[in-house]
Specification:
This protein is α+β, with helices and mostly antiparallel strands. It has a seven-stranded mixed beta sheet with strand order 1-2-3-4-5-7-6, sandwiched between helices. A hairpin with a 2-residue loop joins β6 and β7. α1 packs across α3. The protein is globular and about 40 Å long.
Length: 173
């Protein structure tokens, strides 16, 4: 099946979208993003991440219209260990959820990680209560490694996070 999406490197103009999206509790409910973030904070964060070779930011777009619908943030790119972390991935518009875009975007970023970056290992984590994420990650082939007790913090409160990974050999199965 041909992809309906493209992943492009995020640019400065995307910060306005990220700001709008990441102030919406429907988007950030299960993210370690504190409430009350504003455009300036998101823009500063974007600029710092953009200059760091261990991080990468993608905007998820509908292929035939170039309409941005979500975001992927990669961190901990480690060339010594050939690993990286999918730190954040989301489809922002609730009308676009449940249509397979999240799975497709995840598969595209995994293709980038294993084919282009040639990593051995990809990790991600999620709030233990986020059953939708858990089901998606398992469906795509991630393996649960365990629960990181108080592994995240949101609005001053610690949250338990489930850690999952995928190895190169698992991706190519």
């Amino acid at each position: 099946m041909e992809s309906r999406l493209i992943l492009r490197d995020s640019n400065f103009d995307d910060c306005m979208l990220f700001s709008k999206w990441e102030q919406d509790p429907k988007v950030t409910r299960f993210f370690t993003i504190n409430e009350g973030r504003d455009y300036e904070e998101i823009t500063r964060e974007f600029i710092v991440r953009n200059e760091d070779v261990t991080q990468r930011q993608f905007t998820i777009c509908i292929k035939n219209t170039n309409e941005p619908i979500g975001r992927i943030y990669i961190s901990n790119i480690n060339r010594h260990y050939d690993s990286l972390d999918i730190t954040r991935i989301y489809i922002a518009d609730t009308d676009k959820r449940g249509k397979g875009y999240g799975e497709e975007a995840l598969r595209l970023v995994l293709k980038w990680a294993f084919h282009e970056m040639k990593v051995e290992r990809v990790t991600l984590d999620y709030f233990v209560e986020n059953e939708i994420a858990a089901n998606l990650y398992e469906k795509v082939g991630f393996i649960k490694e365990g629960v990181m007790r108080h592994g995240g913090k949101k609005n001053g409160e610690y949250v338990d996070m489930c850690l999952m990974s995928m190895l190169k050999e698992e991706y190519y199965k």
